[in-house]
Amino acid sequence: MLMAAFVERGFVVEEASNGLDAIEMVRQDPFDVVITDLNMPGENGVAVLRAARAASPDTVVIMITAFGTIDVAVEAMRLGARDFITKPFKLAEIERKVDQYLEVHHEESAHPTKTWLHPSVQHMVGTSAQTKQLLKMIERIGPSRSAVLIVGPTGTGKELVARAIHDSSPRRDKPFVALNCAALAAGVLESELFGHEKGSFTGAHERRVGRFERAHTGTLFLDEVGEIDPQIQTKLLRVLQENEFERVGGTQPITVDVRIIAATNRDLSQAIHEGRFREDFYYRLNVFSLHIEPLRNRRDDIPALIDHFVHKFSLELGKNITGVDDDVMAFFLRYAWPGNVRELENLFERAAVLAEESVITLDELPQELLDVFDAAPAPSSVAAPERGSIIERTEQLECELIRGALERFHWNKTKAAEHLGLKRTTLQYKIKRYGLE
Questions:
Q1: How many C-beta neighbours within 10 Å does residue 324 have?
Q2: Distance, CA of 229 to CA of 206 (rounded, Å)
Q3: What's the angle, vertex CA 132, arms to CA 128 and CA 136, rounded to 5?
Q4: pLDDT tens-digit readout, 181-196
Q5: What letters, b where the CB count within 10 A reaches 16 and e where it falls short, cover 197-231?
Q6: Positive or negative CA dihedral for 255, 259, 264, 270?
Q7: DSSP code, position 208
Q8: Could you list the residue range(s) of the whole structural domain that residue 10 is in?
């Protein structure tokens, strides 16, 4: 039925009668869209989804099933499915979704952005210059085995970046092992990293394998590396230099092949100056350094993040949330976000839980945050002088470009946004900001 419908509409369609045939087909040729059942002979829809995404990350996968549970849907979305439809369904619904996703795919091809998948169904998304530059660096350093140091404030997504580096490397199918170094005392941390032998200390009733052994042939992510005790830094330095270590209480050297990615929100140069961080360990970690800007410095990412959280929490909460209204977007774009992306996600989750309509309004946001927002100075008008700072002159130019586009398309905001290369929600915010209504 689906094949006949899409062929009639002019699509080039290939059909597979079971999961094994489908996997073979997606491996041979990339497809723009894959529509798959969940339960099939041979291999199920999840296996087809994995194969399609592995062969072509841009492929849109739509999952269909009669067994529509939240757990199955979340798992499908975690693996990269774009949508999850339960039977019985209407043909028009499938056609509409395919048209919608192909239109989005076309826009993304014209204005490429990048998304990194995280096992907890989180995406690191963004269109800002900083995010695009970060992506370039990840693509360039991913294939190597060199150590990487990720620096940035709490809540900016340092572990997501670490996973993106791992996923873009030849180690992508090997273990990714993460450890928060700040959460453990020095003695416990040593045992966690290197493991211990039976009887090596009180309570060591059996041999334990450490994180290095578990990460063998893969990647070990050391979060909050700036909190590690200098004595353990010395032992870590040896692993980086010699690729071997000994378990706590052991005498037998253990050789490992592990790529180290470390992250910190601290100034390690200052820690070195204060004697809290070994300089030689720092230079071993800092073969490549990636800096993640706080969210307030890359506000262009906010509309894309909102789009992602709309999709994520609609699925998780079983609600049909379609977006946020203009006032909420204006608040999100002006707020300072001291907690960065993590704060934005938590705030959006709260709003989604409280939302009674399909569009989130200011009524769903905490009043204490709105009070701060209302107390902030209003954006200045940009009837800018001929002379002024580069920011004032840039805003004046942007204002004129937006006014010109709106007049050209007779105030059709959708067409003006397409012409300017902006999301419609971003254009609406800028119209309010510059007083162009």
A1: 26
A2: 25
A3: 170
A4: 988 888 889 989 998 8
A5: beebeeeeeeebebbbbebbebbbbbbbbbbbbee
A6: positive
A7: B
A8: 2-110
Is residue 249 within 8 A of residue 201, CB to CB? The reply is: yes
Tell whether the torsion through CA atoms of 347, 352, 355 and 360 is positive or negative: positive
Q: Are residues 144 and 97 in the same domain?
A: no
| Domain CATH number, residue 28 | 3.40.50.2300
pLDDT at 123: 44
Helix (H) / strand (E) containing 151: strand 148-151
Long-range contacts of 424-432 (CB under 8 A, 24+ apart): 425/303, 425/306, 425/323, 425/324, 425/326, 425/329, 426/300, 426/303, 426/329, 426/333, 427/402, 428/326, 428/329, 429/326, 429/329, 429/330, 429/333, 430/398, 430/402, 431/402, 431/406, 432/326, 432/330
CA dist., res. 295 & res. 161, Å (int) = 15
pLDDT of residue 218: 95
Last residue within a domain, chosen from 275, 293, 311: 293
What's the rounded mean pLDDT across residues 65-74? 65
Which pTM does this prediction carry? 0.61
| Cβ-based neighbour number of residue 136 at 10 Å | 11
pLDDT of residue 114 exceeding 60: no
Q: How far apart are CA 123 and CA 135, in angstroms?
A: 13
Residue 228, Ramachandran bin (φ over 0: left; ψ between -120 and 50: alpha; else beta): beta
CATH of the domain at 352: 1.10.8.60
Q: What is the mean pLDDT of residues 78-106?
A: 76
The count of other CB atoms within 10 Å of the CB of residue 86 is 15
Give bridge partners of residue 62 from the DSSP assignment: 35, 83
Query: Would the pLDDT of 364 be above 60?
Result: yes
- Distance (Å, whole) CA 216 – CA 211: 9
Mean pLDDT, range 206-215, rounded to an integer: 90
Closest CA to 197 of 205, 188, 189: 205
Residues 140 and 238 in one domain: yes
137 CB burial (10 A radius; 0-12, 13-18, 19+): middle
In the listed set 252, 270, 293, which residue is the last one of a domain according to the structure?
293
